[in-house]
Amino acid sequence: MFPANERRRWHGTKRECTVGDPGTTPTGFCKSPTCSMCIVMQRSFDKEKSAPGSMFGKGVYTSGTSSKSHGYIKQVAPSRYRAMLLCRVLAGKAKKLTQADHNLVAAPAGFDSVRGVPGGGLNYDELIVYDNNQIRPLYLVIYDST
């Protein structure tokens, strides 16, 4: 069980479907095994899907700054295929870091998560959890940023 310290944080993700597009009929989430948005909305997060070489290792990344999450998804998906999730994150006791540690696979001993703070190469705040049970999607935001 994690100490409370519950946060609302943004997570940018890609989608392959038209769920949420104007003019489409809401029939539920798609069944594609590679549509990140629908997978998260149906089954929640999986830290094993994190990008290799991520700044704070293999975890689920969120930010209190929506433009940070948008900036990430902008790098990996065309504008039509972007989505943002507002998530409930149980941070527990967060270890503050300003320098990268690409080898993390769990929060440091005595901590429940990592909080990347601006400085030392990080421009925006980040909160990384390493247990899939620490994060749940609350709201889905689909937008066109063109």
Keywords for this structure?
146 residues, alpha+beta, Phosphoenolpyruvate Carboxykinase, domain 3, 4-stranded mixed β-sheet, 7 strands, 28% strand, globular
Description:
There is one protein chain. With 146 residues, the chain is α+β, with helices and mostly antiparallel strands. It has a single domain, classed as Phosphoenolpyruvate Carboxykinase, domain 3 (Alpha-Beta Complex). Helix content is 13%, strand content 28%. It has helices spanning 36-43, 66-76, and strands at 6-14, 60-62, 82-90, 94-97, 113-116, 126-129, 135-142. The radius of gyration is 15 Å and the shape is globular.
Beta-strand residue fraction: 25-35%
Give the beta-strand count: 7
Q: How much is the radius of gyration in Å?
A: 15 Å
Number of helical segments with 4 or more residues: 2
State the helical fraction: 10-25%
**Numbering strands along the chain, what is their spatial order in the largest sheet?**
2-6-5-4
The residue ranges in which pLDDT falls below 50 over 5 or more consecutive positions are none
CATH topology: Phosphoenolpyruvate Carboxykinase, domain 3
Structural class: alpha+beta
What number of domains?
Answer: 1
What is the overall shape? globular
Mean pLDDT: 88
Q: Separation of termini? A: 42 Å
User: What is the level 1 CATH name?
Assistant: Alpha Beta
Q: Strand-and-helix sequence, N→C?
A: EHEHEEEEE
CATH architecture: Alpha-Beta Complex
Protein name: Poly [ADP-ribose] polymerase
Keywords: Glycosyltransferase, NAD, Transferase
GO molecular function: NAD+ poly-ADP-ribosyltransferase activity
Domain PARP catalytic: 1-146
